[in-house]
């Protein structure tokens, strides 16, 4: 009898240990996403600076005539917008029509938005757009998640997976875009200050079908929720109540992923204030579409924007890197 009881107790213990294996694996995967997300964001910031992406208007010298010429690098730019989203990867899947220039995509909705733009491959008025020549994937998709074949013999080293040209292949799970907000308080002919945010995606969903005609708009990559109340007074993001449009939108409020809150001044056609927040926790109120969400990020100006606030919900935003960059000279100003 004592032996049977001992076996029973031991079995309970072993089951508890076995249950920790999938939990541990999940935590390792999530930690790897966070680590790689931070690495992608740092690499993206270097790309932005090296490629001078913040210069909507560049002034290269023509090698033949030795004259200075102006090149509009941001394709589709509209200078009346407070925020601009540089997102060439989106245009590899969608046409450049007025509805797709707006972020988030909502079809023909007239709600305020961020201006989405493409990017020229290099500083020339005849240069192709990145989305048309394959450079969008080269620049805005991370190439360091390399593929290896793991041999059955554990004593052998993993072998790199090569393409037909002999280049090592990568998974391409991580990509990024960059949102640029111009600080109008520091915008003169001599200098411009940008608030730069770099959202990093794991397996980004680029689906964008017109919500008014698509039977499953909840499958689109860019969705929105209405912020009903800032119960935490907006301090550090804090606690908010959100009204989701569809129950499936809840999967976009995963712990440690990111969402963007935005608001617009009365009568404005473009977003006048936006900020990114990490989701700390999210839970429904009494099994409804109203969710209580705890956010971590900058203070939200509830005294200015307490009503009409909305959240952009996107799957797989594993990191957002934010930095203020100040550039000098008229060549760095958006016209």
Share of β-strand residues: 25-35%
Number of strands: 18
Cα shape:
globular
Helicity, in percent?
10-25%
Number of domains: 2
Category by helix and strand content: alpha+beta
How many DSSP H or I helices?
Answer: 2
Low-confidence stretches: 330-335
Compute the average pLDDT. 86
The N- to C-terminal Cα distance equals 86 Å
What is the ordering of alpha helices and beta strands? HEEEEEEHEEEEEEEEEEEE
Largest sheet: 8 strands, mixed
Radius of gyration: 24 Å
How would you portray this structure in words?
Helix content is 16%, strand content 31%. It has 335 residues and is α+β, with helices and mostly antiparallel strands. It has two domains: 1-213 and 318-335, no CATH class; 223-313, Elongation Factor Tu (Ef-tu), domain 3, CATH 2.40.30. A hairpin with a 5-residue loop joins strand 15 (273-284) and strand 16. The termini are far apart. The model is unreliable at 330-335 (pLDDT under 50).
